[in-house]
Amino acid sequence: MQDEGDAATTREVVLAARGVTKIYRMGEVDVHALRGVDIDLYEGELLVLLGASGSGKSTLLNILGGLDTPTSGHVRYGDWELTHADEAELTNYRRKHVGFVFQFYNLIASLTAQENVALVTEISEDPMDPTDALGLVDLGGRLNHFPSQLSGGEQQRVAIARAIAKRPDVLLCDEPTGALDFRTGVAVLSVLDQINRELGTTTAVITHNAPVGRMADRIITLSDGSIQNVETNATKAKPSELRW
Amino acid sequence: MSPLHKKLFRDLSSMRGQVLTIALVVAAGIAAFVGVRCTYLSLLESKEAYYERYRFADVFAHLERAPDTVGEELLAIDGVARVQTRIVDAVRLPMEDMLEPATGQIVSLPEHGEPVLNAVHIKSGRMVEAGRSDEVVVLEAFAEAHGLEPGDHLPVVMNGKLRRLRIVGTGMSPEFVFAMPPGEMAPDSARYTILWMSHDAVAAAFDLSGAFNDVTLKLEPGASESDVMTRLDAVLERWGGAGSVPRSHQLSNYGLEQEMGGLRSMANTAPAIFLFVAAFLLNVVLSRLIALSRPEIAALKALGYADRRIGLYYLELVSLIVLMGALLGLAFGNLIGGAFTQMYTQYFRFPDLRFRLDNGVYGVAVAVSLISGVVGALGAVRRVVRLPPAEAMRPPPPADYRRSFFERSALFAMLGQATRMILREVRRRPLRFSVSVLGIALSVGIVVVGRFFADSMNYLIDEYMQSAWREDVAVGFLEPVSMRELHSLEGEPGVFRAEPFRIVPARISFGPRHRDSAVMGYSAGSVLRQPIDRDTNVVPLPAEGILLTRKLGEVLGVSIGERVRVEVHEGDRPTLAIPVAGFVSELAGLQGHMRLGALDRLLHEQDTASMALLSIDPARYDELLRRLQDMPGVVSINRKAVTVERFRRQSGEMNHIFAAVLAFFAAIIAIGVVYNNARISLSMRSRDLASLRVLGFTRAEISRVLLGELALQVVCAIPIGLWIGRKMGEGIMSFYDAEMYRLPVIVSGSTYAFATLVVTAAALVSALMVRQKLDHLDLIGVLKTRE
Ligand SMILES: Nc1ncnc2c1ncn2[C@@H]1O[C@H](COP(=O)(O)OP(=O)(O)OP(=O)(O)O)[C@@H](O)[C@H]1O
Ligand SMILES: [Mg+2]
Predict the structure, then answer these.
(1) Cβ atoms of residues B324 and B19 within 8 Å
(2) Is residue A206 part of a domain?
(3) Residue B39 pLDDT more than 50?
(4) Residues 6 or more apart in contact with residue B369 via CB below 8 angstroms
(5) pLDDT band at residue A178, thresholds of 50, 70 and 90?
(6) Which of A46, A120, B511, B522 is the most exposed place for a label (fewest CB within 10 A)?
């Protein structure tokens, strides 16, 4: 499935997974969340992951981001084999290279927008200024607001600012618009698109809205733990042109 | 400041209710531990310093009369470092402000210079001057009790002659910290005193010029006490020596050691229980609090924070809370330690008794709290960070939702919705529920611990003493009197019945062990005093032989049928060998009991009594008292009600303050536990509860769900806690093995009721505070974020 042979191949592979399976033991039954997935993330691309609920999208993204380990298979970041990495190495991997955006934002309630971003810049090597990161997501005026004082979309934008402030090599977003209305969703996607273009951050976005795929370089569809389809867009749509 | 530190301080301040109550739990544990233990240590230290500075002797001996030159002989004994010869004798003080005469001892001071041993600490006024035959220094406590000051005069009957002595100073000495007449249960500063007078004046009054009748020794370091005593007794044999007494048996020191021993077992047990209960609760509360932050911990991990850094964060959080508790505990501990010590200064008179906080003890208390908190917190953090962050970000695995047999029963269907939710919650997290119940039960238990000692003391006073002493008045005579004289008392005003009673001061020994105590003689058919056991049952006296206090039997290591040596300390001072006929489990003292007839036969006396026990018409007491005072040979007149009351006051005051302080701390701990329990369930279930509110449930209805669970915990905890309290009481008492008292573990109904009340009140206060939170539940906010 990897030999698409067009635009993507000209770029370098940043993150590669081979034969990744994930099995959850639930007492008597085994849940096969992933069944031998091979996937490459190319430098600077914007990838959209589609798939029915329960198809294994989050599981895959978590494994790629070092939040979880596969039951079998390999994950490689550049030359770095993550499969056998220990907890400290995974932490280091996340800290240096990965930015996460979750459906439920996962901001720290007792920290302001700026402080939530600073939480990450604190422990990064060459971070952006938290104010600049928030400026990028158009929240420069809400620096000192606490999450509870922000709307869902604004909170998600803080989460994005927090994820990108460390200038990650890979940005992983699990249903970033899942909790948002259409307009706010588009705004959030615009931010992701803009960051992908301006900073060249490899970005993977999980979504339930198939039309979102139009803004991606590639669309991968998961089904029951396996990759069902890979599609490459010749031309990417602007987020503002999307409808769902 | 780093964002994590900002988070730390914001979290602390937003949880301030919880933080404060947890800190108070820590403070209560530390304060109880530090306050009580350091009071004990301060007493111990003051005592040691007192003994050292005022040269408390090692060996004491009383004799009839020996020329001063014998002193040189004693100094020559191997191992003797210093010798102080002196004159000590009994005196009577017919005080104007008391109907009964006070009694006491007069102690001679060297004509010139300080006593070599047992120096006097002058509290007010000055020392007696050489050559002044009317000057006297009086025991400070006695002076206080009678409002006497230097310059006042004191009537003293010395050697049968009444004299008016001038008080020049008040003082105290390590020899008389516990000044009480032999055979008494509690010191009575108004009725017993020590007078210090210049040697020549005492010698003149007792016809002992150029002689002494009492000697105290200081030993060389490393010298054998028993060898010296054997040599000393051999020398004094010729001079009517009554047998030497080592420091450990010296009356005041023995009483003091006993009291301190009791205190020590108290100081070792009760505060430790408090500290450990508080530490345990801290552990539970913190681990729960942190379990709640599971999503935050996961988010930090996802952002790339290392486990170690996250652990450090919680370490800081816990340390700050414990530090707050430690500072509060230090303040409280100093406060109650100061108050306890202040109380003890009234009781143990040391020249310099001040509360000193021991850094080691404080350090231990803080360390125990800190370790327990850190273990609880880091355990919870570890449980979260061990999970892959992907999993930790999800809420904990859903509970087992199968319906139990009970839930399928018809009874369950009849219960209201709220009750069903409560019962399901309990069933789903039985461990959590049990730990909550245990926590509350422990706080109930420590309220009981705080009070049971007072209960046991009350039993001793109200039940035991009342049954043991049925007389109204006990009259003591200088010399044993005949039965005829004694029964003539029945003709005195208001006397219904007069019974003879004999107390023979004696040293009871078996093999190498001995105790200085007394043998009680009971006349046949006497009803006013009979030996009774700890359950107040009368123990019948055998026709022959002696009944010993069970504890005395244990101390001596003697069994029934063996003979104890009884060295009588009065009259011709015979030494008797008496077979042990049995043991009585008595609550107080160490003594022997015999039939008066059998005792008289052994003493080769007939029908004698040293005391008369009277049952009287209380209305005519004053009249009787005046008649008794005029009788020659009457040395003491004790009204039982007064004695018991004095004892109650002395022990009661201290126990009540102790109990009140511990109950206060226990209540703080109870509030801390119950409140935090409720707050944590609130946080855990706020989403459910908010959903219910959104569905249209009223505030009262959702409160019922949460507070109902709390109520269920409290209801389950109370009986368990009362039981735990009693068991802890038994544990403490098993350490409290003083020779003076052997208190039974009595927990009164009112203590059980009080403990129940304290914890119920704590629960109500917590419920009200939680109810406030419930009423302000942020419906939208709670639903906006994922739990
Ligand atoms: N912790 C877990 N324990 C057991 N099974 C799990 C666990 N996490 C995920 N699963 C199962 O693994 C499968 C894949 O889950 P995953 O969360 O990756 O799906 P998804 O594609 O992200 O779905 P959605 O679009 O609903 O978020 C599902 O069948 C899910 O039930
Ligand atoms: Mg998912």
Answers:
(1) yes
(2) yes
(3) yes
(4) B26, B29, B30, B275, B278, B279, B282, B322, B325, B326
(5) confident
(6) B511
CATH number of the domain residue A183 falls in: 3.40.50.300
Contact flag B304-A122 (C-beta cutoff 8 Å)? no
The reported pLDDT for the residue numbered B753 is: 93
Q: Which residues pair with B197 in a beta bridge?
A: B108, B136
pLDDT per residue over A85-105, tens digit each? 887 888 889 888 999 888 777
What is the count of structural domains for chain A?
Answer: 1
| Inter-chain CB proximity B302 and A94 less than 8 Å | yes
Domain annotation covers residue A11: no
Alpha carbon distance A50, A177 (integer Å)? 13
H helices of B185-239, where? 199-205, 225-237
User: B531, B584 in Cβ contact below 8 A?
Assistant: yes
Handedness of CA B173, B176, B178, B180 (dihedral sign): negative
Domain ranges of chain B: 61-255, 430-468+645-787, 469-644
Read off the pLDDT of residues B706-764 as tens digits, 9 standing for 90 and up.
Answer: 888 889 999 999 999 999 999 988 888 877 766 777 778 888 898 899 999 988 988 88
Q: Is the pLDDT of residue B402 over 80?
A: no
Of the candidates B149, B128, B146, the one whose C-alpha atom is nearest the C-alpha of residue B137 is B128
The mean pLDDT value for B445-458 works out to: 84
User: What pLDDT score was predicted for residue B406?
Assistant: 62
- Beta-carbon contacts of B766 under 8 Å, excluding residues fewer than 6 positions away, are B671, B674, B675, B677, B678, B710
Instruction: Please determine, for residue A35, whether its predicted confidence score (pLDDT) is greater than 90.
Output: yes
DSSP A197: H
Find where tokens 């790629």 sit.
Answer: A64
Model confidence at B694, in pLDDT bands (50, 70, 90)?
low
Nearest to A67 among B11, B300, B390 (CB): B390
Smallest CA-to-CA distance from B335 within B663, B43, B31, B669 is with B31
pLDDT (mean) for B383-400: 72
ipTM value: 0.78
Count of Cβ atoms closer than 10 Å to residue B143 Cβ? 24
Instruction: Give residue B61's pLDDT.
Output: 94
In degrees and rounded to multiples of 5, residue A177 shows phi and psi of -105, 5
- Residue in chain A closest to B782 (alpha carbons) equals A148
CB contact under 8 A, B304 and A96: yes
Phi, psi for A12 (deg, rounded to 5): -85, 150
Mean pLDDT of B99-123: 89
Mean pLDDT of chain A: 87
How many other CB atoms sit within 10 Å of the CB of residue B182? 11
Q: Where are the alpha helices (DSSP H) in B696-776?
A: 699-735, 749-775
Q: Which domain holds residue A133?
A: 43-69+97-241
Average pLDDT over residues B451-467: 83
With respect to residue A62, please indicate whether it lies within any of the assigned structural domains.
yes
Question: Mind listing the pLDDT tens digit for each residue in B75-98?
Answer: 999 999 999 999 999 898 988 877
Whether ligand 1 lies within 6 angstroms of the CB of A29 is answered as no
| Residue B87 contacts residue B64 (beta carbons within 8 Å) | no
Number of neighbours of residue A2 by Cβ within 10 angstroms: 13
In chain A, residues 28-67 whose CB comes closer than 8 Å to chain B: 58-59, 62, 65, 67
Q: Is B49 on the interface with A (CB under 8 A)?
A: no
Within 8 A of B299 by CB-CB distance, chain A residues are 106-108
B462: CB partners within 8 A, 6+ apart: none
Supply the pLDDT for residue A222: 95
Interface test with chain B among A57, A63, A106, by most B beta carbons within 10 Å:
A106
Q: Do A98 and B299 touch (CB under 8 A)?
A: no
Is A25 touching ligand 1 by the criterion CB < 6 Å? Answer: no
**pTM for the full model?**
0.76
